[in-house]
Amino acid sequence: MPPPRPRRTAPLRRALRHAAPALLGYAAVRLLGIVVLAKWAHLKGHGLWPQLADKWDSKWYLRIADHGYDHVLTGARDSCNLAFFPLYPVLVKAVAGVTPGSRASVGLLLSLGASMIAAWGVFAVGDRLYGRRTGVLLTVLWGATPVALVQSMGYTESLFTALAAWSLYAVLTERWLWAGTLSLLAGLTRPTGIAVAAAVLTTAALALWRRRRDGPRTKERDPAPGRVLLGAALAPLGWLGYIGWVGVRLGRWDGYFAVQRTWTNEWDGGADTLRELRTILAYQPRPQMFLVVVSAVIIASTALFLISLTQRQPLPLLVFTGVLLLIVLGSGGVYFPRARFLLPGFPLLLPLATALTTVTPRTRTILLGTAALSSAYFGSYMALVWPSAP
User: Fold this and answer.
1) Helix (H), strand (E), coil (C) string for the chain
2) Beta-carbon contacts of residue 341 (< 8 Å; ≥ 6 apart)
3) How far apart, in whole angstroms, are the C-alpha atoms of residue 95 and residue 154?
4) CA–CA gap between residue 113 and residue 244 (Å, rounded)
5) Predicted model pTM
6) Residue 388 Ramachandran class (φ > 0 left, ψ -120 to 50 alpha, else beta)
7) pLDDT in tens, the chain (390 residues)
């Protein structure tokens, strides 16, 4: 009698069990944030669901799912929905078409599901590089950032982080077709998808150069160059495809960038960011707490990137976070959403996660608990007190 064949789901189950502490820790931190928000919203006479599913950018994505994209650019400020990338509203429309409930509910559930997949990807990267404990800590830290409530809202940050994290993991494990495909999808999700593509392209180019330099000694154990080239070719197609499609739709080569200008978002090399930082931290006698926290996130992210450079993190992570910072901090326009724009840059938290592995369990618990409580409070403040979008 032949032995039973191993089930194909066995590796997936083992991987899920391995990641379980990270996923449970992440879920606990995010549940704390939602409970605090629910209590605060109740005291203010608001419902929880509208705060998560149907505010600010969520409304734009839902309108795209309902009515599609604009055909013309009127020039009116903050009015053209072509600024929003298509993957998330397409998924909302597709899933809502075969399930009960409103599109807002579907969008929220998709975002919540994507946040768990993202947390798994964040853990996978940390575990791959520094071990299971660091992976768990990295995941919990990502769920306890100041604006982490956005991970539980009808926004694209969770979906984008999931695609970015697993694309980076695929690069680290030399699964080039997966890396390119996930990068393509990330490029259809957010403008910063080009940061994922840059990471895939740079690492692929380095892998091919090393293969050529080292000659036949390494060719047997290296991935086939055809797969590397195909993954690299796929990586930027989502971002380039949407930028090109907007140009064709508006009948001008710079169509997408013209749309961004109507949203007062244009590259200025970081001059506007520095001006806002100086105004908020040096000249305003009583700056708004939300803007102070956004400024602190910008400064901390820059410092953590420099630390990551000194620690010589793997090239794809450095390229991803470097390009992400370059885009977010180098663009002028609205200042207050920049902490949210940096939320997918989870590799920036690796220096903190590795440092936490060296402290005592009691100190680690206190620090993580403080971060989780602070995130819960600030997330509720962001949703219920701050008068604009996250």
Assistant:
1) CCCCCCCCCHHHHHHHHHHHHHHHHHHHHHHHHHHHHHHHHHHCCCCHHHHHHCCCHHHHHHHHHHHCCCCCCCCCCCCCHHHCCCHHHHHHHHHHCCCCCCHHHHHHHHHHHHHHHHHHHHHHHHHHHHCHHHHHHHHHHHHCCCCHHHHHCCCCHHHHHHHHHHHHHHHHCCCHHHHHHHHHHHHCCCCCHHHHHHHHHHHHHHHHHHHHHHCHHHHCCCCCHHHHHHHHHHCCHHHHHHHHHHHHHHCCCCHHHHHHHHCCCCECCCHHHHHHHHHHHHHCCCCCHHHHHHHHHHHHHHHHHHHHHHCCCCHHHHHHHHHHHHHHHHECCCCCCHHHHCCCCHHHHHHHHHHHCCCCHHHHHHHHHHHHHHHHHHHHHHHHCCCCCC
2) 192, 327, 328
3) 14
4) 30
5) 0.96
6) beta
7) 455 555 667 888 999 999 999 999 999 999 999 999 999 999 999 999 999 998 899 999 999 999 999 999 988 888 999 999 999 999 999 999 999 889 999 999 999 999 999 999 999 999 999 999 999 999 999 999 999 999 999 999 999 999 999 999 999 999 999 999 999 999 999 999 999 999 999 999 999 998 888 765 555 566 788 999 999 999 999 999 999 999 999 999 999 999 999 998 989 999 999 999 999 999 999 999 999 999 999 999 999 999 999 999 999 999 999 999 999 999 988 999 999 999 999 999 999 999 999 999 999 999 999 999 999 999 999 999 999 999
The phi and psi torsions of 331 (rounded to 5 degrees) equal -100, 135
Closest CA to 29 of 166, 149, 181: 149
Question: Which has the closest alpha carbon to 280: 194, 339, 216, 340?
Answer: 339
Q: What does the block give as tokens for 13? A: 């189950």
Tell me the two tokens of residue 102. 């409103």
Cα separation, 339 vs 196, in Å, equals 18
Rounded CA separation 179/183 (Å)? 6
Dist. CA 265–CA 254, nearest whole Å: 14
